[in-house]
Amino acid sequence: MSLDIEKKIAALGLSLPEAAKPVANYVACVQTGSLLIISGQLPLEAGALKAKGKLGGEVAEEIGIACAQACFLNVVAQAKAALGNLERVKRIVRLGGFISCAPAFTNHAKIMNGASDLAVELFGERGIHARSTIGVPSLPLNAPVEVEAIFEIAL
């Protein structure tokens, strides 16, 4: 499955980035039992944010959706770094999305669908997950989106 998922990523014209290193006093992911909890990932591409700013402000919804996709690719990169390959992913249990937005913005779910849709496209039924999406006044580095995850893994 690891190679299949990476082939699916490439077929979509995307690429799996190198797993980002933590920038503060935390770890990128923690395994406890059969769960892999992945810290919030920003929409980094080649070490830089795909966009900066707020949805409902200077960031268009289409860019926000692409940022959510980039965040999810970074989540997958963390899973691969932690597990060695993606064959051990049994299920994506939960995604959490944080959308930096103007106070009147209400399309949080539409933005987070960028991550959710990609999860299902890459992992099939194993990618169907529970989810929370929250609007926030700001995110680290002025990122418009951040995504965290919980995966069930084979031991």
TrEMBL record:
CDD domains: YjgF_YER057c_UK114_like_1 (cd02199). InterPro entries: Endoribo_LPSP/chorism_mut-like, RutC-like_sf. Transmembrane segments: none annotated. It comes from the Bacteria. Residues 7-145 form the Endoribonuclease L-PSP/chorismate mutase-like domain. Pfam families: YjgF_endoribonc. This is RidA family protein.
